């Protein structure tokens, strides 16, 4: 099994006629993802990439049976696009847009409280179930089908870890980029709970960084659930200076508990295996799965 997506996922692209929307929709179609249409206000009734284009998400859902949307809308309009999909009761929304204003994301977060939509992102690399479904911008050359779930705040580190796992003979069940912004949808904790409910995920890798409380909340659920599958974590930013943003909008250690050492301590105390270096994540999971077997 997979989480969030499967072979029945039908995707529309909000912003399909833009450069990024066009490119990545094409790549996803080539991968085998069932992209069934797009949304661009004012262009309803036209076609793009041989797919129908609609003025609204609600119309696209009615006409295509779409159950997932990806957002490739510029930052100043991305929140409105997410909210439109939430209000249309789209089950899954994956927001790839970077630099969405924090104030706008507060509106999105409020909209999520009144619906059942699962939002992944923004500033996410997307979701990948190798050989099944890809929604996002990630490379797929090193990915292979398997039983290790990955939840991550970092796109580049996710690619590195996937390559390490595949080299070690370990495939991935699903890879989820929750996004690197301070305010985002699906949390590490909620994503981990989905992996726990998946019988085909035999181990989970969590890739975290400084800033926010996602890793601490993940530690809490792991300590409470005492999962039987191994959990490996990589937390980067141990030498990052305080009060300085490091790459991602949410990667800033500006308050107690937001630094890397505090996150590592919380996860370690919860029973998580800490990878000592980014290049050792695959090896660490391989060893953990061997011991668990």
From TrEMBL:
EC number(s) stated in the UniProt entry for this protein: 6.2.1.5
Domain CoA-binding: 4-100
Keyword check for Cell inner membrane: no
Enzyme class: ligase
Domain of life: Bacteria
Any Pfam family: Ligase_CoA
InterPro entries: Cit_synth/succinyl-CoA_lig_AS, CoA-bd, CoA_lig_alpha, NAD(P)-bd_dom_sf, SUCC_ACL_C, Succinyl-CoA_synth-like
Any one of the GO CC terms: succinate-CoA ligase complex (ADP-forming)
Name the UniProt record assigns to this protein: Succinate--CoA ligase subunit alpha
Organism: Allomesorhizobium camelthorni
